[in-house]
Recover the amino acids of this structure.
């Protein structure tokens, strides 16, 4: 599976952004689609994940109520709607895919997009 992420940018605190991750190739194996982020000098961390039919989602605590992950199965695209952004959300955001069950561990994902940078100014 090949993943292509887009939608990052420079915004002010309180603004919104929507990230997109389009998949191509053998998408039948991409049961779980997730977003991770990595800020400079920090470890890569799980942000949100969604299963194949979109019925099961999960979020890290710091983004609950502000971020929404969704999936367009017809177009093999996953979105991350990010509202009420704050400077702590500044990071490079990566979309990822895995087979099997959901996981917060980046090591279990077999396919990664190139990353899109989100910068939130105060």
């Amino acid at each position: 599976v090949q993943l292509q992420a887009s939608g990052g940018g420079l915004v002010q605190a309180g603004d919104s952004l929507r990230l997109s991750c389009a998949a191509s190739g053998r998408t039948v194996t991409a049961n779980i689609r997730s977003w991770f982020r990595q800020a400079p000098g920090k470890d890569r961390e799980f942000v949100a994940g969604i299963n194949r039919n979109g019925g099961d989602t999960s979020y890290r605590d710091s983004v609950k109520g502000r971020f929404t992950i969704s999936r367009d199965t017809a177009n093999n695209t996953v979105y991350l709607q990010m509202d009420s952004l704050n400077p702590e959300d500044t990071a490079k955001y990566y979309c990822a895919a895995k087979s099997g069950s959901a996981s917060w561990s980046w090591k279990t994902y077999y396919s990664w997009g190139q990353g899109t940078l989100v910068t939130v100014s105060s």
